[in-house]
Amino acid sequence: MAETKRKKTIIANWKMNFTMHEASIFLHKLSDKVKAKRGVEVVLAPSIFTLQSLSLQVKKRQFKLAAQNFYWRDFGAFTGEVSIAQLKGIVDYGMVGHSERRHIFGEQDKDLRDKVAAALRSGIQPILCIGETANEREFGETGDVIYDQLVGGLTQVTSEDMKNVLIAYEPVWAISTTQNAKPCTPEDAEKAVEMIREHIRHLYGKKAGDEVRVLFGGSVDGDNAAGYLGVKGVDGALVGGASLKVDAFNSVVEKANALVS
Hints:
Oligomer: single chain
Strand content: 5-15%
Strand order of the largest sheet: 7-6-5-4-3-2-1-8
Distance between the termini: 19 Å
C-alpha cells in the first residue's frame, strides 16, 4: 500500500539569535534565495520580539511563521509572558516542548499539554517536540520516553484535533549543542518515527497515525538532510544551527524540494 501523501515541512528555529535589524536583513536574504516547491512548506521561528515586525515583511506564500514558545493562559497577570492568543494572526505554528524548554527551563508534561490545547483553541498548529536523552537511550528507554511524552503532551487533544498537530522527534543525544553528542543515523530516526506513528494509531486511530506530520530534528544540515528527509515516515526537518546560515538552510529546503514530484 502506498504511503499517505503528506506535505514536507522545513522549520528554521533561530532560537535566541538575531537582533530585530539582523532578523530583517536575514529574512530579506532568505527571500531572495529560498524557493520552495508546491508541497514543501518553509516555516521560520524567530525570537518572540521580532515576530510582529517580520510578519509585516514576510511573503506569506513563501514563508510561514512559528512561535518558539508561549504561555498557555490567554490573558492575565503573568508578567513577562506572551500568550498564544496574542500571537493569533501573526503565527501559524507554535513550538511546544523543545528539548531546551524541557531540560533547561524545566517544563513538564502538565505545562506542555496546556500549551498544545491553547494553540489549538487559538487556531494555531502546535509542533510537539519529543525525544530522549543520552542516558535514556543508553538504558533502552527510547520507546517509553516517546510514549510518555506523546501521551503527556496530547492528553487534551481529540482525534479531530490531531489533523492540526505536528510532532517533531529530536533525540537530545544527537543535538550538536549537547555534550558528547552523537549523530542519529537515518535507521535510528526511522525506528523512532515508526514508534511515534504506532502510538498515534493506538491513541487516535489509523487515519491519524498515517496522516500526522512527523519531523526530524537532530542537527540537520545541508549535508545530512537528504538522508533524514528520505526516511520513510519523516515529513520534514526542525533545523537549528544550519537555519542561521542562508546557504545551509536553503540546501535543506532544496533537499526537500527534490523529494516532491
